[in-house]
Every structure is written in C-alpha cells, then in structure tokens.
Fold this protein.
Amino acid sequence: MNFETEEFKNRLQAERDRAEEVLRKYAVCAEEGYQRPLLSAMNYSLTAGGKRLRPIFMHLVFELFADEKDNTVLLEHFMAAMEMIHTYSLVHDDLPAMDNDLYRRGRKTTHAVYGEAIGILAGDALLNRAYETACGAFLSCTSENDMKRVARALSILSEKAGVYGMVGGQTADVYAEKTDMPMDKEQLDFTIRLKTGALIEASFMIGAVLAGAGEEEVDRMERAASFVGKAFQIQDDILDMIGDEEKLGKPVGSDARNQKSTYVTLYGLEEAGQDVARYSGEALSLLEDFADSEFLRALIGSLINRNS
Amino acid sequence: MNFETEEFKNRLQAERDRAEEVLRKYAVCAEEGYQRPLLSAMNYSLTAGGKRLRPIFMHLVFELFADEKDNTVLLEHFMAAMEMIHTYSLVHDDLPAMDNDLYRRGRKTTHAVYGEAIGILAGDALLNRAYETACGAFLSCTSENDMKRVARALSILSEKAGVYGMVGGQTADVYAEKTDMPMDKEQLDFTIRLKTGALIEASFMIGAVLAGAGEEEVDRMERAASFVGKAFQIQDDILDMIGDEEKLGKPVGSDARNQKSTYVTLYGLEEAGQDVARYSGEALSLLEDFADSEFLRALIGSLINRNS
C-alpha cells in the first residue's frame, strides 16, 4: 500500500478516529468537584490533538496477531493508558524548569494556561490515571488467560515508561541541557532509544501480548518498534534542521540555536538521511512476513518520509 | 498494649526496620548509567527517613487476616510501592512552584539538592516505579487466586493515589493557596479525606486484600483508615499551632502565618482536640473485634497522642 493513496489516508483517518474515541471514552473526565482545575487541565492536554501514533501502533499490532476471540476491550484500556503516559511526558517536558515551552502544536501548553502548580499535578494525575485505566482492564477479563495478558501488558507499560525507559531518556536529555554538556554519540543513542523508543516499543509489545502472541513474537515486535523509534526521531532532527516551518507548526533550527546535540549535528545530514532509510528498512523487514501488516508498513513508510 | 511501654517501642522499631529493609530491597536502585542523577535523586528522597507509617499499616492489617499460606512476597512489593507513591508526593509538594520548601525533616529537599528539573523527573520516576514494583508481584503469584488479589490491590492503589484520591486532594490544597481563597469546612474536609486519608485507606485495604479478606472486611478497613487519616491530620494541624519546635523539627505557626485554613483555624483548638479523640475512637472500635489488633490499636493511639 502506498502512503500517498486515498486508501491509506482513509484508513489512517479511521485509525485516528478510533484512537480519539477511545480517549474520550476512557481518559476524559467530567470536570466537577474540588479537583476541577486539575480535571480541566488533564482534559485540555489530552484533547490537544497530535498523531495518536502510539495507540494506533498498538491497535495495528494487535490486529496482526488477534483472532475474533480476542478481547478488544482490554486493548482499549491500554490504548488510552499509553496516550495518557505520552501526554503526561509532554506536559512535564514543557514546564518552565524543563524545556519552558509556551506553545505546542499551535496551542498554549498546559502550564501556560493553568499555571505551573496545576501543570505539575496534571502530569502526575495523567500518569497515575494511565495505570488506573489499564488496571480497569482486569474487570473485563473473562478468563485466567486474559488476566495473565493484562498483567504482562501492565508490566511492560510500567517498565518502558520508567527509569530504565522513557523517564531515564528524559533525564539524559534534560541533564545534558541543564549542565551545558552536549551529548556524544553514545549518550544520544541512549536518549533516542529510551525517550522516543521505549513507549513505541511498549505499544508494539502490548498490542502483541493482548492478542496472545508468544514471547518470540513479542520480542520481534520490540525490535521492529525500536527501529521505528530511531528512524522517527532522526527524521524529527532532520526536520528541525531543514523542515518547512509552516507545515511543522513550529520554528526550525531551534536545536542548533540551543547548541543541542542531535543526530544531524553529530552525524551530518547525509548520514542521518541514510540511517532513517536503513532503520526503517530493518523495521519493515521484520514485519513483512505478516499477511495483515500492509497498512502498518505503509504507516511506517509515511512517518519516515513525512515533512511534519 | 500501652504505647509508652518498652514492648510497644520494640515492636514499632521492628516494624520500621522491616519497612526500611523492604524499601532497600525493592525500591533503591544502583546509581549507574546515563540516568544516574535521576536514580541518585530517587534514592536520596526514599532514604530520607520518615515514620514509614503506610507500609507499617499495610503489614499490620495483612497480619490481622493472613494465615501461614498467604504470600508475604506479594505484600512486600506493595509496601515498597506505597512508600514510593508517598515519597513522590512529598518531592513534588516541595517544588518551587508548589510549597517551595528547601528543608524536610532537617534535610535539604530533593529539588534543593538536584535542581528543579531532576526534582520533577525524580517524582515522576518514583510514581512510575511504584507501579513497576507492584506489577513485579505478578511474577511471585503461585495461583489464580494470588493473581486476583494482586490485580485488586493494584486497582485500589491506582484509584486512591489518583485524581479521585491523593492528587485530587493535593489540587484542592494547592488551588486554595495559589488563588488566596482560604478553604471552608467542606473543602477542608475533602482535602483531608483525599490528600491525607486516601493513601492510608489504600494501605489498610491492600493489606486486607493480599491476605484474602472478603469485601465486607476490606470496606471495614477502609472506614477505620479513613478515621485514622482524619485524626492524624487534625493532630498535625494542632501541633502546627501549639507543638514544640524542637520535637517537631520544623517551625510551628506556619499555617497561621500563611493564613492557611486548617482544622484548628476553622473549628478552634478545643473542638479539634475533641475530634481527634472522637475519630480515633471510631477507628479503634472498628478494629477491636480482631484478636491480633492490639499493637495496631496502640500505634493509632500513639499517633493521636504524639508531639512530633
């Protein structure tokens, strides 16, 4: 499937609509009670748009392994939880003490609207609510097998979001910036693998686990996702250097101005471009044996050829 | 058992030692890799002392219901997870955008040592690691029954720590302070119930659940804990007004100086003292039917008669 076809675009829209619907159903809360400012800030950040890539990946990988017996309700809990964890990480990344960003995707950031204290608490509450939502899947389990899958999915989620996953990567990134010590290649590789890669890996793995895939297949999904994460982040760095500001919705060249080490500053534009192609090729070849992976592979192709 | 006896003091020390040992075993991480500043900040905050009340309550309630078959390894995962959630809430409460405290229990706060960005990330990482640690209990399950107990305990933990639990209470507290709108009695009651009460309730409930208590008994523990939380917080407010600075390790009168609504400012010292006695009496009477609750009841008695 070519990602420039109408078929691809329609399917992508349908996947995005599904992810938005799941978020509305599981993640958005009624804004009432004394915690109203918090609930309002959480909803604001959750409904700020975005590609919804992680829950879409989770759903697509689930479909690679699922048969009609497999419980999509369990999956929906984790799709929502994953997007909440991604969202909390953005809310905290944007804080004054971190990247100090007032705008994201053309909208004011959460702390810019609700203040710094509620920004911190909204991130905390989103992270916690992700686990509350994922735990909700236990109530929909109809067998011991279901319970084991949910338990395994929860373990993956918590590991990949944690200190040896995403938060670990954020730390390396922030620490380099706050100490004015630009990263070397090894540190940058670590940061990309954890900060960007870990949640994408978790999305692929959880999709597979909830559809009953075996450990070997789950490992294969983890490897494929790791290549997708790398290719995706390098493409991000390339776009920051040579992208179209209007299409990106943000100024380009910010990494260079901040003297930040990126894949492009460390490897050069040419090698970066080659590596995007190489890593995405690795991901695609790990997926090509699956009969139903056509759209997933096209989606990966679209991401590494994107201009926004 | 009288809480002024040697027997009580020895038992309390033994419970505290056990909680510290569990924390060292499950929560403290080797400080290595590019996320070292984060791991170091997490360990710093986790080893800052404190009463370790929540894991101690969890263990004592577990013992009320457990027989020799019940798996204490499952419990240990949750004791550690609970203390990590309590610790993250303190780390974030102390941040400049929140209470802006540079000292806690006579030691510099986490952000004061590691900077604000690492302070935010360390709190995030502690919250996430709490769930990672609690999920680790699934690996020690030896039956479907064990799995069901761990799943239920996880659900309680995530609910009581979340937007309708502790974080909700923090929000009401912070919001009143940031907007300079002192709380009325209803708001204060909400804040005490969620900010202080929710994690104590979860500790009692999880102890009961992991020992196989039935839903009615779990409800009874939740009610008892709710009274303990109220009595504990009101006593805190009393000590802030009339306590001994040296014994408390912090200046008294800070609530009054900050024109903060507390139980004492809203109800007066006399009624506050009566309510501590009344609420702790309610808690004790819910526990008195349990043959093995003697030490737990003495501990509750010591908390409401404490001077630090």
In short: The two ends of chain A are 21 Å apart (CA to CA).
